[in-house]
Amino acid sequence: MTIQADRESHVHDATSGIAMTDSNGKALVCTACGSSRLQQVVEVPNLPAFCNVLLNSVEDARAVTRGDIRLVYCEECAFLFNSAFDDSLLAYSPDYSNSLSCSPSFGSFLQEMSVRLVEKHNLNEKTVLELGCGDGDFLTRLSTLGNNRGFGFDPSYYGPEEVDAGKGVSFKTSYYSSDDAVNPDLVCSRHVLEHVAEPMDFVRLLAEAARGNEADLYIEVPDGKYMIEKPAIWDLIYEHPGYFTDRSLVSIIEKAGLRVTEARPTFLDQFLYVDASAADRPGGSFLDQTTGLDTLDELVSGFRDVFDRTVKRWSDEVVSMAVAGKRVVAWGAGSKGVTFLNLVQGGKIEHIVDINPAKHGRYVPGTGQSVVSPESLVEYQPDLVLLMNGAYESEVTSSLRSLGVNAKVTVVD
Ligand SMILES: [Zn+2]
Fold first, then answer.
1. pTM score, two decimals?
2. How far apart are CA 68 and CA 52, in angstroms?
3. Tell me: the pLDDT tens digits for 341-376?
4. H/E element holding 251?
């Protein structure tokens, strides 16, 4: 099949057959594989650049830096990326928090994944390196479980430099570089790759960190296939220039010279992980065990069709509840909640609930809702709770009922 014929069979919008360009007029290529076989998916202008940074006042919240999303799909490797992304709008600092560790469901997911990795790679008295360790929870679990030595790097880490878990865990608030060689047996990176503008460079850095010791690797990202298949349109955020399908994740990891041994969705299919190895052993490509391009092309077309309809449906719902004098709150002041409020006329919603006390009394970037505790709903008594993530439905419903709040709970994902 020629490239042109292939294009015609997949491309459904006005951009078909036209080479795409970036904002400077340069020919656009896939940031994961370099291909120019791209199609535009959706455009969302003017979103808060950071949706995981809450603000200290309504005024600050409404004045945040904003950026555009122009989501593009690569027909070659099935990667989705924001071609309007400008990483100068983002500077990660200790204000940044996308940890979900407060949630019991999420905590048990992290624990089960840590147990799986310790067993699979026989991680006992070994060294674990994590790039982008966030609050250090995962690395601490891995170190504790196998009495391992941990090294974590993350500019947004806040906390002690040394934690007494396993054989000790050291944290640095800098980016990892090859000068930081720690000779790891396992190299981990969870929810980092989707944040970097040049993902190939980052995967090469992981590969380099793993190569000396022929280490194993664990790489976890949000599942881009879940986003387009569900579809989970609130997962589209400026902080994520990239969205990996299983196919594009395996493809970029293999391009860096690593061998993929497993690729699976996890955490109710919302995340995707790959186990890989830097060991030079024979074995074919894992690509034929991932989702086929035809299937992914169809999902992308479906996502494009449903995006505007879904935004309009929830905007109408929020407005009609307000007109009827009903109180609506959103639940989950993470990225999905912030995107939802910014896309759907969220001005009709006064509050967003979160179980993390550190978020209470702060404000949602862009739209300025205050973040409140579940307990505050006892007095507010909402009619409707819009839950951003169905994974927490039973947890949230039972916590509301035990507080004596009888609001209807509706999942918006
Ligand atoms: Zn590509």
1. 0.85
2. 17
3. 999 976 689 999 999 999 999 999 999 999 999 999
4. helix 246-255
Tell how far the Cα of 189 is from the centroid of ligand 1, in angstroms.
Answer: 21
Residue 296, beta-bridge partner list: none
**Dist. CA 74 → ligand 1 center (Å):** 5
Instruction: Output the CA 32–ligand 1 centroid distance in Å.
Output: 5
What spacing in Å lies between the alpha carbon of 81 and ligand 1's midpoint? 9
DSSP 28: P
Q: Reduced to 3 states, what is the DSSP secondary structure of residue 107?
A: helix
Q: What's the CATH code, domain 315-411?
A: 3.40.50.720
Angle between helices 293-323 and 335-343 (to 10 degrees): 60
For residue 386, give every residue at least 6 positions away whose Cβ sits within 8 Å of its Cβ, in sequence order, or none.
328, 329, 330, 331, 340, 349, 410, 412
306 CA to centre of ligand 1 in angstroms = 23
104-296, CATH topology level: Rossmann fold (3.40.50)
Domain locations along the chain: 3-83, 104-296, 315-411
Quick: pLDDT tens for 118-176. 999 999 999 999 999 999 999 999 999 999 999 999 988 989 999 999 999 999 999 99
Q: How many A from CA of 253 to the centre of ligand 1? A: 12
Does 104-296 match 315-411 in CATH topology?
Answer: yes
CA of 31 to the centre of ligand 1 (A): 7
Give the Å distance between the CA of 252 and the centre of ligand 1: 9
Q: How far apart are CA 78 and CA 73, in angstroms?
A: 6
Cβ atoms 133, 157 nearer than 8 A: yes
